[in-house]
Amino acid sequence: MIINKIQIKPLNLVYIPITERLNTTMFSDFTTQKEGTLMGQPSADCPVFDRVQPTYSGYSERFKLGDRSFNRQYAHIYAVRLMQMRDILTARAKQTWGEKVPVRRLCDLQMGEQCCIVGTIFKHMELQPSILKEISEEHNLLPQPPRSKFISASDELILEDELQRIKLEGNIDTPKFVTGSVIAVFGAEKNDGKFTVDGFCVAELPPQAPRQPLSSDRFVLLASGLGLGGSGADSLLGLQLLVDLVTGQLGDLGEQSGASRISRVLLAGNLLSHSTQDKDSFNKAKYLTKKTQAGSVEAIRMLDELLVQLVASVPVDVMPGQYDPTNYTLPQQPLHRCMFPLSTVYPTLKLASNPYQADVDGVRFLGTAGQNVGDIVKYSSMDDHLEILEGTLRLRHMAPTAPDTLGCYPFYQKDPFILEDCPHVYFSGNAPTFQSKRITGPDGQEVLLVAVPDFSRTQTACLVNLRTLECEPIRFSSFTAEDDEDNEMNISH
Amino acid sequence: MGPKRRLITDTFKVVKRAKKEEKQDKEPAAPEKEKDLLELQQFDLDWRYGPCTGISRLQRWERAELYGLKPPQTVRDLLRRSGEETDYTHCLWHDYPL
Questions:
Q1: pLDDT number for residue A398
Q2: A67, A301, A307, B88: least CB-packed within 10 angstroms?
């Protein structure tokens, strides 16, 4: 039935170029329909398009957990984060405010002296949910309205170093900062014990390895939020169209030759819908839910059937996301192979961790399924996923709010979310809309930022050209994308 | 007077037997051990090397070394020399729950 629909409405594919630029090579340039190949007589010779084979090496080891010891406190992460960032920020501060700027620790701070301090931001937020507060007020607890943001005008920034903390005021934009960011501030302590900030600086982009120039155009397809097992059956049509496009079963010879240039598919989390995580088994009596099957079982089976179509034709990386059946805390470990009995036999299926890091044809990809960005949306005034993505890159930290408001494994020796080298493509999944941008760092680093949209809501995936580092959305708009949105809204709360 | 009658309520002297001295022989002399432990505790209390709870002293030492904080070499030698006893391997507050 789905196949019929594809043949009836082949023009459902809409390519949206970001900007009209000359000399750019977008995926849509390769998929122009050739005249007469679709409606003509079947020809005797069937052209075969060989799929491009990229070199690939994964570098996700630093996100793998060895021993899982949970008897440590999170103090270690903050201590290690500051240890790792202190030298970088001291150098950056000297670059910004001159070689002779005194860099002090809080315990050596002299009243009124202009100096620079390196420390971790803590944002005191009145509205931040706190379990202790809830317990202590249990007896006359007012139900709090569900909030999408936890910031208020009374928020205060506090800078912490190894020993002490000090309140910040002055030239610093409180709502934009989040807890856990390591920055350097320049200013002086005033009589009231607060530190008046004249300026601040962040670590900026880490050093970048040069990229080998590619001779031909190759693409990596990024998609996230497939949302299987959700209520919207329409997204399945879009999904099937996506699979058929990538595997070359869609369109005419021109489109098929374009599809053969897709060298890799990366699914960035939330393969399953939020609604597969029903809370019935927690709330209801056991004898009532004993015989019901978890919603994720059927959804994983569907995912396996989709994946087997893809992996037979193209290498696929599967990252877990917030709603997927793996551990909740970052870094999320790869989904287990035994969940994919059909597709796991193909060597092209790669179950990856979240965050994900890999080199595809010498292009370093780094990204997450979007939990880090979504959490910053909640605890700062920023809404734009691309802006947050750029902010975290400049902070050199992928998830500053972990472990404060974002679940995180208690590391002690290393903070794996600190960026040691600069990726070429830095992405986050499950964004409300597609966005992408090229930024250039202070040392000439070129980074493509991509906010990969939620597929089940937007029916949009995106294609990154590995040669030119450009990104283009590809939309499988079906009939009722708006109706879907309403459903999704209900599910998410 | 007949034979001495003993009552069930009579008390008896507690006789302490001298403990065997074997244990003492194996360990280093008490003052030396105390000196070692004191040095290790000083290492625990040095804030520059980060929090000390939840990880072993050796892990903390190695982390400090990794970030170029130059932890004292004598502490590492001491940790290597001394065995598996938690007095040596773990920090001052090891016995307290988290």
A1: 92
A2: A67
Phi-psi label, residue A36: left if phi above 0, alpha if psi -120 to 50, beta otherwise: left
Residues 58-77 of A with CB under 8 A from B: 71-73, 75-76
Give one DSSP letter per residue of A365-426, joined into a string. EEEESSHHHHHHHHHSS---HHHHHHHHHHHTBS-TTTTTTS-B---SS--TTB-SS--SEE
| Angstrom distance (rounded) from CA A181 to CA A176 | 11
ipTM entry: 0.73
Please list, in sequence order, all residues whose beta carbon lies within 8 angstroms of the beta carbon of residue A161, skipping any fewer than 6 positions away.
A82, A105, A106, A117, A118, A119, A120
- For residue A336, the one-letter residue type is H
Comparison of pLDDT for A473 and A21, the residue scoring more: A473
A259 pLDDT band, cuts 50/70/90, is: confident
CA distance A86 to B91: 26
* Beta-bridge partners for A186: A116, A199
Nearest residue to B48 (alpha-carbon basis) of B12, B27, B72, B78: B72
Average pLDDT, integer, range A149-176: 89
pLDDT at position B38: 86
Mean pLDDT, rounded, for A226-255: 81
- Cβ-based contacts of B67 with chain A (< 8 Å): 80, 83-84
- The model's pTM is 0.81
Sort out which chain B residues have CB atoms less than 8 A from A412's CB and list them: 54-55, 59, 63
Sorted by sequence, the CB contacts under 8 Å of residue A245 that are 6+ apart come out as A13, A251, A255, A259, A474, A476
Higher pLDDT among residues A138 and B14, named by residue: B14
In angstroms, what separates the C-alpha of A70 from chain B's closest C-alpha?
9
* A160/B95: higher pLDDT: A160
